Every structure is written in structure tokens, then in C-alpha cells.
Amino acid sequence: MSIPNLGGVTAEQAEALFNLTNNGVLTRIDQRGKRAGELFQWGLHPRTAEPTSPLAGDDAAFAAAYPLTLAGPQAVTEHALFPAMSATESLHTVAILVARRKSDRQPHITEILQLCRVAMECAALTIWLLGDLDRDVRRDRCMAEEMEQLEQRRRYLVIGEQDETARPSRFPPQMLVENAEHRRKYNAMLDAAKSAYTFEKTPSFTRMIRESAQWVDTHVPAHDSGEIANNGLESSARQFYSYGSSFIHGYKWMTEYSRSGTVFPLIADALAVTLNMAESAVCLFEAASRAPGGARPESSYVPERFEPTIAAWSTELFSS
Q1: pTM here?
Q2: CB < 8 Å & 24+ apart, contacts of 181-187
Q3: Given phi > 0 = left and psi -120 to 50 = alpha, else beta, which region is 108?
Q4: Which of 36, 115, 160, 246 is geometrically suited to a Cys-Cys bond with 95, CB 3.0 to 4.6 A?
């Protein structure tokens, strides 16, 4: 769908008129599209936790409590960092698509909403992993996530084994031997971990979205311009996660609520909620990865406007 075509006016004039009569919705989309690209460089330049940071302490606590897993010495850092990085990369693509609306004469509705929903899921995971004040809770949430991912990895390996069994001639004999040994060692490790440790099941992403949005509402970022403080995040996050599933799974039901120009406010709202979740996730990771009250690292790629939030959360959430 594109901007309605009005006879007798240019495309630029039609867009300006549409924007004027729809409460500046295209301006909001464009502004948020620019925001969507701000964290891209941060995502391209991951950094480890400072030695005296809360996150480094979480990593050490995990390694001491759960040595049998494959998580390595930076388990909490890596589990929390990767989804935040993924969110920033999805948002970078959103920024490109928003900027191309005029040149393409196409608002890229489906692509933007799909990418936003994926980015919001990823950001919510980071917040869920790091948002609790109790180190033991953060450690154990990481363990729950680790075991969930190990189970998914096992299912992937089973599919590979089935393929090798059905068509062994497609693979070099030595590869079949090595893959079988890899699966044997992997299954032994996972079975040993499941036998040795008690762990919770990770919540559904529906629940994780809700809880992470509630966390942001409780800890309104200092950089917030009023989007969160005035409107809250939970309700809009839950709504977008619901209708966003229509675009993710190819369901058409949401088209009944997005006909004509009504889809553009949906895009603007989806951008707002996703950006607020992703920006909060990055700020939370940065706060946890610095020594409490520590200065901004010289090599930091975090935009300066997030520093008040990072500084506040570093002191308020991780000082004890």
C-alpha cells in the first residue's frame, strides 16, 4: 500500500497533504526511522564486561554454579548481548526501509512490522535476563535460557542425523564418523547437565514481552522524551506483539484493521514501542557491563544521548 494518489498534485504534494491531515504520522515515522539506525554501530562492536562490573560477577557466578554446560566463561554476557545486537541489526534494516519510502513509492509495511516484532522479541530477552536486581536470579535465568537453547540445538542435530541416515552417500565417510561423535559428546553433556542441575523453563515470548515492558515502565529511562512516561510501554508492546504475529506468520486478519491510511499510525506505534524496548535493552546491558558508577569507555559506540540512562541504572540497579 502507498500514499493515496490524489489527482492534480505531485507525489511529494500528496504525501505532504496526507501527513498534514493525519496528524503528522509520516513525520513521526521518518523521525523514528532515523532513530532505528542509531544503535547499528554499537551492535557491530560488541564489548566484554569490565572486570569489576556486575555482569562480570554474573559470569563468574554462572561458571561456578553450572560448569557442565557449553556456555563458557562469559555465559551471562553472551546470552544477554547477542539478542540486543540482533535487535539493533533488525532496526538498522528498518531505518533503511523507512528512508526508502519516497524513492520506492512504497512504505514497506510488512517488512517493517516483521522486523520490528523480531527486534522487540530480542530486546525483551535481554531485559528479562538482566533486569532483576538479584544476581542469583540473573544467573538462573541465564541457565534457563542456556538449557532452552541446548535443547533446540539437540533438535537441530537430530534433523541432521536423520538426513545422514536417509542419504549417507551424500556425505564423506569421515564426516559421518565425526558428526556421530559430535552428537554423542553433545548428548552426553546435555544429559549430564540435566541430571546435575535444577532449572526453570523459560517463559513464553508473550510473557517475556509483557514482563520486560513492565520493567521499562517501572524504570523509565532518563533519556525518554515522554513516549514511555506519558503513555507507558506495556499496553502498546502487548498490542503490537499480538497484531505483529499476523505479519510474521502470513495471516491476513490484521488487514481488517489496517485499511486505507490507518496502517501508518500502526507503523509509527510499532516503531516507537520497538525502539523503546531495544534502546532500554542496550542501556541495561551497558549499565551492567560497567563498574557501578563507572565512566563511559573511550571506545564506546553508544550514542551520547543514552548516557544519562546508563549512568543512572549503573548506580541505581547495580550499586550493591
Answers
A1: 0.94
A2: 182/157, 183/157, 186/153, 186/154, 186/157, 187/154
A3: left
A4: 36
Return d(Cα 265, Cα 138) in angstroms, integer: 36
Which of 116, 41, 50, 123 has the alpha carbon at shortest distance from 81?
123
Cβ atoms of 234 and 213 within 8 Å: the answer is yes
Residues 6+ apart with CB under 8 A from 170: none
DSSP calls for 40-54: HHHHHS--PPPTTSH
Residues 6 or more apart from 65 whose CB is under 8 A from it? 139, 143
CB 261, CB 15: distance < 8 Å: no
CA distance 65 to 141: 13
Per-residue confidence (pLDDT) for residue 98, from 0 to 100: 96
- The C-alpha cell at 115 is 522486523
How far does the chain reach from its first CA to its final CA, in angstroms? 52
| CB 213 within 8 Å of CB 233 | yes
Quick one: pLDDT at residue 97? Answer: 97
- What's the burial of 34, exposed, middle or buried (CB within 10 Å: 0-12/13-18/19+)? exposed
User: Tens digits of per-residue pLDDT, 259-303?
Assistant: 777 889 999 999 999 999 999 999 999 999 999 988 999 999 999
pLDDT tens digits, 175-224 = 999 999 999 999 999 999 999 999 999 999 999 999 999 999 999 999 99
Instruction: Tell me, rounded to whole angstroms, the distance of Cα 26 from its chain centroid.
Output: 25
Among 119, 145, 130, 159, which Cα is nearest to 240's?
A: 119
Q: Which three cell numbers stand for residue 308?
A: 544519562
Distance CA 231, CA 157 (A): 45
